[in-house]
Amino acid sequence: MNDTAPEPADKNHRCGRVALLGRPNVGKSTLLNGLIGYRLSIVSPKPQTTRHRILGIATRPDGQILYVDTPGLHIGGRRALNRRINRAALHALDEVDLVVQIIEARRWTDEDEAVWKAIAASGRPCLLAINKVDAVKNKDALLPFIAEITAGRTYAGVFLVSARRRDGLDAIERAILERLPVAPAVHAEDEITDRSERFLAAEQVREQLMRQLGQELPYATTVEIEQFVERDDGMSEIGAVIWVERTGQKAIVIGAGGERLKEIGTAARLAIERLFGRRVFLRLWVRVRENWSDDEAALVRFGYDD
Ligand code: GDP
Ligand code: MG
Known about the structure:
Blueprint: E1 14-21, H1 28-36, E2 54-60, E3 63-69, H2 80-94, E4 98-104, H3 110-122, E5 126-131, H4 142-150, E6 157-160, H5 169-179, H6 197-212, E7 222-230, E8 236-244, H7 247-254, H8 259-276, E9 280-288, H9 296-301
Parallel strand pairs: 1-3, 1-4, 4-5, 5-6, 8-9
Antiparallel strand pairs: 2-3, 7-8
Helix pairs in contact: 6-8
The structure holds guanosine-5'-diphosphate and magnesium ion.
Magnesium ion (MG) binds next to helix 1.
């Protein structure tokens, strides 16, 4: 064979983009992580944990799937941050070959309906993933539920999954691959995202804020990486600022004797080390920027510009 001839296109290889859409807290990020096999996208029991679109790449022998995890589409948020989050989710629809709508088993809410309407209006083919089936004791009860929600809605396939237990993920992956265009891979096989390590490190700190702070406070916080240095010994030195909206919140994040901040830092460091596969030295500060979540300039500075 002539070395300089272009490689023949592989008719069996598929590649394309898939948006994971759904209302907050249905398990989109857990599903993304299960599908790609890394804890890339942060997860917590609180709604609106994900604030950005995140690309997660799964490379298989017969195809490459570019998953776009999105913030949950959310009705009624009035702050500038909420508007930007909804926009980020809807933008994902413009640029994908296929959509997976995720819902919770046995629940169909007005927000699920709003998500479906946005997908239907986009004209993109859509698979339905009914998640958290592990939490349903009587599986027979799912049959009438499936019949009810799929009536009159043109899903290209319906899948029962438990993202947390990674049940049913192979079947949905196969269905996704079948529906992607024949195309060569666009990312190297060891790439799992297009996001920078700075971004991923900030997200791991934010995950701990979502998990370790009370009900309201996480929504008043964001994380900015100020320092990111690769040392000669292979360790990374990361300095991150936790921004809050009021002085009183700063004291709560730090906690008595600095205990709370220490726990946040330790858990975040371990998560960053697992994701990066190397040792990390993480330093955290807490600073106040009044009302940052409703301040357009602050939102751009903190990376909410997608
Ligand atoms: P997102 O907001 O849609 O991205 O949802 P997350 O992935 O952050 O998950 C929200 C919550 O649902 C977390 O507490 C997850 O652990 C939980 N969760 C996700 N998938 C499952 C599942 O398959 N079964 C159960 N029981 N819980 C799940
Ligand atoms: Mg999420």
